[in-house]
From TrEMBL:
Similarity comment: family membership: Belongs to the AfsR/DnrI/RedD regulatory family.
Protein name: BTAD domain-containing putative transcriptional regulator
InterPro entries: AAA_22 (IPR049945), BTAD (IPR005158), OmpR/PhoB-type_DNA-bd (IPR001867), P-loop_NTPase (IPR027417), Sig_transdc_resp-reg_C-effctor (IPR016032), TPR-like_helical_dom_sf (IPR011990), WH-like_DNA-bd_sf (IPR036388)
DNA-binding region per Swiss-Prot/TrEMBL record: 1-96
Limits of the OmpR/PhoB-type domain: 1-96
Short name of any one Pfam family annotated for the protein: BTAD
Annotated organism of origin: Tenggerimyces flavus
Keyword DNA-binding: yes
Listed PROSITE patterns: OMPR_PHOB
Amino acid sequence: MRFGVLGPLAAWTADGTPVRVPELKVRALLGDLLAHEGRPAPADRLAFDLWGDEPPGNPTNTLQTKVSQLRRALEDAEPGGRKLVAYESPGYRLLVEPDAVDAFRFRALVKAGQLDEALALWRGNALEDFRDEPWAQLFVARLNEERLLAYEALAGTLTAAELGELVAKHPLRERLRAAYVRALYTAGRQTEALDSLRDLRERLADELGIDPGPELVELQQAILRHELAPQRTNLPVPATDLIGRAEAVTEVRHLLDTSRLVTLTGTGGVGKTRLALEVARGVDNAWLVALTTLDRDATPAEVAALVLTALDIRDESDEPVRALVAAVRTRQTLLVLDNCEHIVDAVAEVVDALLAAAQDVRLLATSQEPLGVAGEYVWTVPPLADDSAAELFAARARAAGHDAPLDPAEIAAICQRLDGIPLALELAATRVRALGTNELARRLDDRFRVLATGRRGAPERHQTLRATIDWSWQLLSEPERTVLRRLAVPADGCTLEAAEAICGDFDALTRLVDRSLVVASGGRYRLLESIAAYAQERLAEAGEVDATRERQHAYYLDLAVRAESHLRGPDQQDWLGRLDAEAANFRSALDHRPAPRLVNALAWYWILRGRLREAVRAFDLALTSAPDPEALTWRAGILLLMGAPVDLATLEPGAPARARLFLGFACSDVLDLATGEQIVTDAIADLRASGDEWGVAAGLGTRAKQAYARGDLDLLASSAQESHRLFVELGDRWGQLQAIEWLGALADLAGDYAEATRLHENGVRMAEQLGSWPQVADHLTWRGRIAMLQGDFGAARSLLDRAHRLATEQSYGPGLNFVVLEQGLLARRVGDLDEAERLLGSMLADGQLHPTPLATIYDELGIVAVQREAYERAATLHGCAAATRESVGALLAAGERVDVERAMAATKSILGAHRFASAYDRGRNLHAGEAFALVGESPQRTSM
């Protein structure tokens, strides 16, 4: 929750939604608590502030009512949040963090020197709707004084008009008056400057009986003697507002206070020049030197001569550099050297001479690469943030005549496609009137044609998007061009290792980073989308597309093969993160050449990450050319995990043991148990023979899962414990998760819910850390089940809902079946019989359920039938459950046994022993199809 007092009293939720605080006294209470600035407000003081000398009959109780109303308004706005109004003897306190109140943020920003940003927080007069209340007056006065002090500190950057407005409101502030008088004088308005000083003298005498301070007396004398030099500059007046750069302007101005040379770098069109001009507007005696008029072979002498011309200094000597240094040696001057990239060496020599000999000169350079001289501070101008990019685009579209409403989602998509580059956004905005945002977004695949309309009056290199990038391309050496065009092939960037393998020349890559054509961040190198599109064109022109994509495929195949062993051990999490970063590149490499070897190497990664649909797509592509036993086996197992039917007879022999083990693991949920057990047994034998300790540990984990389905508690315990021990030694977190799941299941069967909860809570934590979302879903479902069996239905519903979302997002079939089963059990326990029947009945549709959950479904539907008084149907369903469970030896968990036995006892009591036995035996003898048909019948219409 955030609060505002720098204007009318306001409150907002964390996402910026206004909070309505009803009733005037409740709003006043909130304002009073905020005015106490985190200190407790005595209850009697609050009561007096609210009602003065006419309190209600019981002010203490009435105040408590207002406090409750305020609490309710705040808590309703953000449900689940902590209570913000607390009782603290002798009264109440508002529990908020300092940055949650705009007044506190204002003070912090002022202290940090970020005055523009601080003053931007003000929305009007402080507590405008309560400023006349006695309790608010001192607080408001203090805030207004702090605001004035901030304006005075910023006075040197304000225009005469802005200062005039402040002086009109605060005519006795001498510091503001001095800044206003200086601004008038330097604008050539000497008479007005002297009139303003005379006005101040008269006001001070009439209202305070004092004279102006010595600073104003000296200022008046300096004006009369013409000793106050007017500001001179050649900075152009901007035609439009600068959007989204307020913080940047403040930061760069601060840098110029401590660094004599600041170089703004960044890609073409990002707004380096516009930012530099805005920074310079707030600095006395600032001059712009546009270096684009010089050719690439310009000398330092020609650079110096251009600077002298910009400064309106005539020089006829043969040494312009020396003449420039002499001319500015004693000047306090800011030189804006704009567009240095094409003559960096020459500019650097001149700058070096100025820094060495002219200590009062400051330099603000714009360049696509640093100047590389001692003392330089390089500040990279970033693309606009999403909100600012959208604001700029919308403003320029309106200025271009588009007056229809703009779709925020479509604007966001355009801004993202154009990388938040201001020039590209401004060019695109001019097309909205003709195309609309939807069509414009669609046509950005051909952006250089769409954004080819020139901006009249703009420099030639900024008239179209292509011209901007052409300018940068022309400055590159041939090795740099080669690397840049090849770097268009990696998708979403790549590591340095990958860049060297695919593109070659490391030195050229680093120079491209320096030239702001390649973005280097977090150890990765990427191109902005517009530069990538341009580079792809150049790659095609050079005839290097196929060769470069082959190098990409070779590199990512090698990476996937190297990753396989690391994904099964202590480095698992690090390598998962590494492969996550390269997901787009793997897809690109597979699109170029979907080789079975690459998809086989990536299979375990996709399974760990739950990217099952992506994996099937890749395997389908890879298997189009020729069958591959290993790929077919991985694909079959993944399809089973997704809940899709698979015919194992179509698989070819010869797959490695690990792929077969995974198939057996996947079979355990959907095919007959014996098939899965045989596949796993054969795979474990091969893995033991080859000394594959990881494979054996994984096989034991799967065997524990199968033992659970069989009801073999001894095998379940021994297999899960040994699997866990081995995986701990191997450092494999995924394997530990599998073993923990079945150790938790063992505790569940025994009714040890405390141990089961502990194990599955650990499982959720480990799976979340690993980013293994299918396993998160499984362990959440177990936790929801245990909460349900313990009677905590609210917690159970929350846990199961979260598990359901994850399993659905991951297309994780067995996990989805598991959670739907438990949601059905929960629905029955809370009395929602229709929902229980819907959920449990839906699980029978595909006919691939394992006997263990199938038996549970029959039992649960039997309990529902009892509650609907369909007793013969109930007995038949319990008979189906018993026969199904006995077919595999499955056990009934302790937490379910009580409900089942109670339902059967009630049924027997109503029907009598003979009728119960007859119906029960009928269920035991039904075949699967008949049992499914029975479930489909409505218990309201039939009694068996």
